[in-house]
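User: Run a structure prediction on this.
Assistant: Running it now.
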Amino acid sequence: MCAFTDGSYDSKTKTYSHGAVVFYNSQIIQLKGHASNKFSIYGNVAGEIAGVIHVLSLAKKKGIKTLTLYHDYIGISKWASGEWKAGNDLTQLYVNYVKKSGLKIDFIHVKAHTGKKDPVFLLNDVCDSLAKKELKSDQKGAHNI
Protein backbone atom coordinates (compact mmCIF):
# COMPACT_ATOMS: atom_id res chain seq x y z
CA MET A 1 0.00 0.00 0.00
CA CYS A 2 1.17 3.50 -0.84
CA ALA A 3 -0.41 6.69 0.48
CA PHE A 4 -0.06 10.46 0.31
CA THR A 5 -1.42 12.66 3.12
CA ASP A 6 -1.83 16.32 3.96
CA GLY A 7 -3.62 18.45 6.52
CA SER A 8 -5.16 21.89 6.75
CA TYR A 9 -6.58 24.28 9.34
CA ASP A 10 -9.11 27.10 9.44
CA SER A 11 -8.32 29.52 12.29
CA LYS A 12 -11.75 31.20 12.03
CA THR A 13 -13.71 28.02 12.71
CA LYS A 14 -10.93 26.28 14.71
CA THR A 15 -11.37 23.28 12.40
CA TYR A 16 -8.61 20.99 11.15
CA SER A 17 -8.91 18.65 8.20
CA HIS A 18 -7.03 16.07 6.21
CA GLY A 19 -6.94 14.56 2.76
CA ALA A 20 -5.24 11.40 1.59
CA VAL A 21 -4.82 9.42 -1.61
CA VAL A 22 -4.21 5.71 -1.16
CA PHE A 23 -3.11 3.20 -3.79
CA TYR A 24 -4.21 -0.32 -2.91
CA ASN A 25 -4.70 -3.36 -5.18
CA SER A 26 -4.97 -1.23 -8.33
CA GLN A 27 -7.52 1.00 -6.61
CA ILE A 28 -7.26 4.70 -5.84
CA ILE A 29 -8.98 5.56 -2.57
CA GLN A 30 -9.52 9.13 -1.39
CA LEU A 31 -9.83 9.73 2.33
CA LYS A 32 -10.83 12.94 4.07
CA GLY A 33 -12.16 14.21 7.35
CA HIS A 34 -12.42 17.24 9.57
CA ALA A 35 -13.02 18.05 13.21
CA SER A 36 -13.15 20.85 15.70
CA ASN A 37 -12.21 19.51 19.12
CA LYS A 38 -9.53 19.61 21.81
CA PHE A 39 -6.84 18.93 19.19
CA SER A 40 -7.76 22.08 17.24
CA ILE A 41 -5.26 24.02 19.35
CA TYR A 42 -2.53 22.27 17.32
CA GLY A 43 -3.82 23.74 14.07
CA ASN A 44 -2.58 22.22 10.85
CA VAL A 45 -0.53 19.60 12.72
CA ALA A 46 -3.78 18.03 13.96
CA GLY A 47 -4.88 17.67 10.34
CA GLU A 48 -1.56 16.19 9.29
CA ILE A 49 -1.74 13.60 12.07
CA ALA A 50 -5.43 12.84 11.45
CA GLY A 51 -4.60 12.06 7.82
CA VAL A 52 -1.92 9.56 8.76
CA ILE A 53 -4.13 7.92 11.39
CA HIS A 54 -6.91 7.59 8.81
CA VAL A 55 -4.50 5.85 6.40
CA LEU A 56 -3.15 3.57 9.15
CA SER A 57 -6.70 2.64 10.14
CA LEU A 58 -7.51 1.69 6.53
CA ALA A 59 -4.28 -0.31 6.21
CA LYS A 60 -5.11 -2.21 9.38
CA LYS A 61 -8.62 -3.03 8.10
CA LYS A 62 -7.15 -4.30 4.83
CA GLY A 63 -4.57 -6.49 6.60
CA ILE A 64 -1.64 -4.55 5.18
CA LYS A 65 1.80 -5.14 6.74
CA THR A 66 3.90 -2.58 4.84
CA LEU A 67 3.07 1.01 3.93
CA THR A 68 4.91 3.69 1.99
CA LEU A 69 3.70 7.05 3.29
CA TYR A 70 4.41 10.35 1.53
CA HIS A 71 3.93 13.44 3.72
CA ASP A 72 4.95 17.09 3.61
CA TYR A 73 5.06 17.84 7.35
CA ILE A 74 8.40 16.57 8.68
CA GLY A 75 7.04 15.88 12.17
CA ILE A 76 5.08 12.93 10.79
CA SER A 77 8.27 10.91 10.41
CA LYS A 78 10.29 12.54 13.20
CA TRP A 79 7.77 11.70 15.96
CA ALA A 80 7.21 8.18 14.63
CA SER A 81 10.97 7.47 14.60
CA GLY A 82 11.51 8.97 18.05
CA GLU A 83 13.83 11.61 16.63
CA TRP A 84 11.44 14.25 17.98
CA LYS A 85 9.95 13.87 21.45
CA ALA A 86 6.17 13.55 21.52
CA GLY A 87 5.60 16.30 24.06
CA ASN A 88 1.83 16.79 24.04
CA ASP A 89 -1.37 14.75 24.05
CA LEU A 90 -1.77 14.83 20.26
CA THR A 91 1.74 13.74 19.35
CA GLN A 92 1.71 11.07 22.07
CA LEU A 93 -1.58 9.72 20.71
CA TYR A 94 0.00 9.69 17.24
CA VAL A 95 3.17 7.87 18.30
CA ASN A 96 1.14 5.28 20.22
CA TYR A 97 -1.14 4.74 17.21
CA VAL A 98 1.83 4.23 14.89
CA LYS A 99 3.41 1.72 17.29
CA LYS A 100 0.16 -0.19 17.85
CA SER A 101 -0.52 -0.37 14.11
CA GLY A 102 2.22 -2.99 13.75
CA LEU A 103 2.91 -1.68 10.24
CA LYS A 104 6.34 -1.37 8.70
CA ILE A 105 6.12 2.22 7.47
CA ASP A 106 8.51 3.81 5.01
CA PHE A 107 8.08 7.54 5.60
CA ILE A 108 8.98 9.74 2.64
CA HIS A 109 9.07 13.50 3.15
CA VAL A 110 8.16 15.63 0.11
CA LYS A 111 8.28 19.37 -0.34
CA ALA A 112 4.85 20.96 -0.52
CA HIS A 113 3.56 23.39 -3.13
CA THR A 114 6.54 23.15 -5.46
CA GLY A 115 4.56 23.66 -8.67
CA LYS A 116 6.51 20.77 -10.18
CA LYS A 117 4.65 18.39 -12.48
CA ASP A 118 6.23 15.25 -10.97
CA PRO A 119 3.47 12.83 -9.80
CA VAL A 120 4.76 12.88 -6.20
CA PHE A 121 4.32 16.64 -5.97
CA LEU A 122 1.03 16.58 -7.85
CA LEU A 123 -0.40 13.96 -5.48
CA ASN A 124 0.67 16.07 -2.50
CA ASP A 125 -1.25 18.95 -4.09
CA VAL A 126 -4.31 16.70 -4.55
CA CYS A 127 -4.22 15.84 -0.82
CA ASP A 128 -3.86 19.51 0.03
CA SER A 129 -6.92 20.31 -2.12
CA LEU A 130 -8.94 17.50 -0.51
CA ALA A 131 -8.07 18.81 2.97
CA LYS A 132 -8.93 22.42 2.07
CA LYS A 133 -12.21 21.38 0.42
CA GLU A 134 -13.07 19.31 3.51
CA LEU A 135 -12.81 22.46 5.66
CA LYS A 136 -15.77 23.87 3.72
CA SER A 137 -17.82 20.67 3.97
CA ASP A 138 -20.97 20.52 6.12
CA GLN A 139 -20.62 16.78 6.58
CA LYS A 140 -17.85 15.18 8.60
CA GLY A 141 -15.45 12.90 6.76
CA ALA A 142 -15.14 9.26 7.66
CA HIS A 143 -12.38 9.62 10.25
CA ASN A 144 -11.41 12.17 12.87
CA ILE A 145 -9.18 12.13 15.93
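The domain at 2-135 is CATH 3.30.420.10 (Nucleotidyltransferase; domain 5).
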